[in-house]
Design a protein that fits this description.
single chain, 246 residues, alpha/beta, Spore Coat Polysaccharide Biosynthesis Protein SpsA, Chain A, two-stranded antiparallel ribbon, 8 helices, 26% helix
């Protein structure tokens, strides 16, 4: 007996790989941050392999800083198929980058994945959990969240309040909340409708989705590692080496 794959499974991803990597400058003087190695492999390969395992067949990757190094590396990949969104003329931030690549992404729901976010899975693959939770009718975007206190490389106050029905609200000023954005989301292309021109953050569109009660979240099962600094990289290396989630 064969099973039919979920009809809501995204087959395309947009990978944010154009950042300057300024907080890791001693490691990124001659290469972009996605090419920094974790557990012996570039960060970008951790991301692309996980997307491929989730059924993503096409990844649109934006490039800017030290673009040639990343482009040369990506040429050797066979899965997912790589399409380049070239931002060498102007860095567009997260929202502007997605808007610039909209024609390349297509008209179906798609993943948006930071290139410096990785995690150790628990029982079920988190991208598969996101796919199962995704609802194109109710949602403009579904964000993967991580525990603020039980993560590597994050020391902020958290990003979102997660309500009982899965909807998200912004952290009230001056407070702390349990969950932080883990760098991955599923988005419907309508999330980008009426987006600003030029560089802007995806937070602009998320705020609009919150106002319309169409921004949702799901909590990561496992250990999230935001590899944003050399110190976080070293801690992630150690945790991966011992293979323990906590």
């Amino acid at each position: 007996m064969t099973t039919t794959p979920p009809t809501n499974r995204p087959h395309t991803a947009f990978v944010l790989a154009a950042g300057m990597g300024s907080r890791m400058r001693q490691l990124t003087a001659d290469k972009p941050k996605p090419m920094v190695r974790l557990a012996g492999r570039p960060l970008i390969d951790h991301v692309l392999d996980r997307l491929a395992s989730a059924g993503v067949t096409r990844a649109v990757v934006n490039v800017h800083y030290q673009a040639e190094v990343l482009l040369t590396h990506l040429q050797a990949r066979t899965a997912p198929h790589i399409v380049v969104s070239d931002e060498r003329a102007q860095l567009l931030d997260t929202g502007g980058g997605v808007v610039a690549a909209r024609a390349l992404i297509g008209t179906d729901p798609f993943f948006i994945h930071n290139s410096d976010t990785v995690w150790m899975e628990s029982a079920v693959a988190n991208l598969d959990r996101m796919i199962q939770a995704w609802d194109s009718v109710r949602m403009d975007s579904l964000l993967l969240l991580a525990s603020r206190e039980a993560s590597i490389g994050y020391d902020g106050a958290g990003d979102f309040e997660l309500r009982a029905d899965g909807r998200l609200a912004r952290r009230p000023a001056g407070t702390q909340v349990p969950h932080v954005f883990a760098g991955v989301s599923i988005a419907h292309p309508r999330l980008l409708d009426d987006a600003p021109a030029g560089p802007f953050s995806l937070n602009v569109q998320w705020n609009r989705a919150i106002a319309a009660e169409r921004l949702y979240g799901i909590v990561l099962d496992g250990l999230w590692m935001h590899v944003g600094t050399p110190e976080a990289l070293a801690e992630a290396e150690e945790r991966i080496a011992n293979g323990k989630l906590n």
